[in-house]
Amino acid sequence: MTWTTRDIPPQVRKLAVVTGANSGIGFHAALVLARAGCEVILATRSPEKGRDAAESIRRELPQAKIRAEVLDLASLVSVRRFAAKIDQEPKLDLLINNAGVMAIPQRELTAEGFERQLGVNFLGHYVLTALLVPALLRARAPRVTTVSSIAANMRMKRINFDDLQAERSYDPWNAYSQSKLADLMFALELSRRCERKNYSLLSNAAHPGYSRTNLFTSGPGKPLGPKQSFALKYFSQDAAAGALPLLRAATDHEATPGSYYGPSGFFQLKGDPVPVAIPKPALDEAAVKKLWETAEVLTQTYFPL
Known about the structure:
By secondary structure, the protein is of the alpha/beta class.
């Protein structure tokens, strides 16, 4: 059966944080959650983008409980400042780790000196989630949904621990694929750790398929070629449809710990949101353990799990 936003359970009296909520699938996820009665915090890199996104949602939903807060995942100082503010809330019901950068043409670094795609897409969310665990555990049925990508099973078939920061050789798409594989591995390991501790926190993941968002222009930084334009036209879906897998992962009562959602269609590029198979590279438990330990060392941040 087709799953749509009409299947989302009421979200009244729940609080959600959506990273990268000013555009793309993050914006549509925030809009839908607000429509379902959830109080939503839009975590955005700039106050202007957050304010504009909040105003756009209020124009459609005047009674929406929504506000914007600054979160720059390329700065762990910003991540810690944001998390400290959220930890003052009575509870946090839902964290959607969505924000990301894609295929940056030239190697760039975060404030702490991490390769930017690894730093923003994975390490920033790793630290954010760790710091928000106390607030999440104060909720009755908390959930963390991390957004991965079909790229997690492309290009980089494993985490390149020998050159994790792409210091010796940088390829934009390899770096992106590795960061999204890391996101998926993180979501699965967080789920395992919560289950071992018998915590109520549910961790799962989703990917949006081939969705038309501004990542395709703000990421690679150049116009799409003829082949890319053709593929985008016939094999992609809009951002609202791309948000459905993460919304199902984040709200469906039947979603299980460690589940993974994506589109149902050809090569999972577009279609109805359904549970999908976890790519084999993400199931390498030795690599997952090493990735987690590496994140701890790099960020000097440890989960209370």
